[in-house]
């Protein structure tokens, strides 16, 4: 009795492992295909147009504390763009100057978001 149970369990383990090897092979092939596609994309030597942007909040107030906080919290980041947009802007161009209407209604403060181009770069 025990011998037949042990043989059944061993057979079950062997059959279960056969299915997994097919799955592993399929995943390895899929991984190899994805690596090949990534290599093709990396080999394409297209120039990348990068804009260095600065985003900051601006408040209309006499409080020096608010102005210092806005200057400290300003973000600078890089953003890849297409060639047409890259050619249409220059350093110092203000991309976004949006009034914060919700802050006026909720908090009674006047302010806006400013996003300006701080630099341009073409990477190979």
* Number of helical regions: 4
Beta strand count: 4
Mean pLDDT: 77
- Integer tally of domains: 2
Cα end-to-end separation: 72 Å
Strand arrangement within the widest β-sheet reads 2-1-4-3
Low-confidence stretches: none
Beta-strand percentage range:
25-35%
Secondary-structure element sequence?
HEHEHEHE
CATH topology of the largest domain: Chitinase A, domain 3
Q: Which percent range fits the helix content?
A: 40-55%
Secondary-structure class: alpha+beta
Q: State the CATH class of the largest domain.
A: Alpha Beta
**Major sheet, described briefly?**
4 strands, antiparallel
Rough outline:
elongated
What structural keywords apply?
124 residues; 4-stranded antiparallel beta sheet; single chain; alpha+beta; 4 strands; Lipoprotein
Task: Explain this structure.
This is Lipoprotein. It comes from Arsenicibacter rosenii. The protein has 124 residues and is α+β, with helices and mostly antiparallel strands. It folds into 2 domains: 1-44; 48-123, Chitinase A, domain 3. 52% of the residues lie in helices and 31% in strands. It has helices at 2-43, 64-72, 83-88, 101-107, and strands at 48-59, 75-81, 94-99, 111-123. Strands 2-1-4-3 form a 4-stranded antiparallel β-sheet, with helices on both faces. The chain is elongated, with a radius of gyration of 29 Å.
């Amino acid at each position: 009795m025990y011998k037949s149970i042990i043989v059944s369990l061993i057979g079950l383990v062997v059959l279960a492992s056969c299915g997994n090897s097919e799955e592993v092979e399929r995943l390895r092939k899929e991984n190899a295909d994805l690596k090949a596609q990534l290599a093709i994309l990396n080999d394409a030597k297209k120039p990348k147009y990068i804009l260095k942007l600065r985003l900051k909040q601006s408040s209309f107030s006499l409080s020096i504390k608010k102005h210092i906080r806005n200057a400290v919290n300003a973000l600078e980041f890089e953003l890849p763009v297409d060639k047409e947009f890259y050619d249409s802007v220059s350093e110092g161009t203000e991309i976004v100057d949006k009034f914060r209407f919700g802050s006026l209604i909720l908090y009674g403060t006047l302010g806006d978001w400013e996003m300006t181009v701080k630099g341009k770069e073409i990477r190979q």
